[in-house]
């Protein structure tokens, strides 16, 4: 998933903004945040989103160590691109690797800003992003990664005061990365406190998780949570069931926490697109995916939607129409069935980044593939919008696919969706 951010603000005005936000923003809440700038009165609500990824400087900032003014300028350019494409929502990655793009009392400043984890960049990117998004009529959802700690396995490279260094028993090495252990109740409580700090301080329109819960499987490797399972897994029939319960608890508790500190803010999750193949479970999709979220990431995404635990779901349907093993059309139909009669809104995650990339197959060399996705999805009333990965491609549009989507489907503006009861 992807990053976003840039534009200017003085340090003095930012500190004043943060002070006011603690009281006034909580009172106004997200419903008053994103304005209808430039939209005709009565424009219909529809999700038109983009992910703005900051991890590894995927979308923003373009590299570490830029001046604050350069970073702000790059961020506002991406927000302007969203407006130009008639999008209305930005998923801004603010906690990519157990760090923060705001002054957090729990975790260090992100390394993706200055190049050094824990170094103050001299401004508040989240405060700025919220303010500038709302000034443009864009809703802003803060995108958090709950358990990923680092893209390497050396704790000594983390900031000296990093919680993962103070609590080495919280951390698991797996697949060349560091993760917090989802099976520890103290970890689950900590990551929620860290995330809800931003929810309480800033007038966010939503909170967003992507597909990372337990890590993706690695050949020949096992996620080493045996000790945690022995200590906390009593009463479960298997370690897999216990792991799913750990993720379920995070989702339910986060949803409750968001409504406690910022009533009306939305909570959405963007999982990998396949819950289970039908060959594994008759309730699954007619696909042959190599990963299944229920079995491999221990995320029961189908249940979260059917039970209405989350406000929206954005399955990442990053395959072409007619793909031999995982067909976009098949999954749109399957997810529409899951969302039928649920309070959880269904949006579709779209692989804009694949357009024009010859390595992704013949379908993606055709700039019309993405617009065909929206046409097909539009035949399913449960699909209430789309989110595009990612901001860099929204802005540059090297294959012209985004321009075609706008011409074919986004001729008029649309209001960002609000939370339904």
UniProtKB/TrEMBL annotation:
Q: Which residues form the signal peptide?
A: 1-20
Report the residue ranges that make up the Glycosyl hydrolase-like domain in this protein: 46-358
Q: Does the keyword Cell division apply?
A: no
Sorted alphabetically, which PROSITE patterns does this protein's record hold?
TAT
- Keyword list, A-Z: Hydrolase, Signal
What GO MF annotations does this protein's record show? hydrolase activity
Q: Which domain of life is it from?
A: Bacteria
Gene3D superfamilies according to UniProt: Glycosidases (3.20.20.80)
Q: Does the keyword Hydrolase belong to this entry? A: yes
Q: What is this protein called?
A: Glycoside hydrolase family 10 protein
Q: Which organism is it from?
A: Streptomyces anandii
High-level lineage: Bacteria, Bacillati, Actinomycetota, Actinomycetes, Kitasatosporales
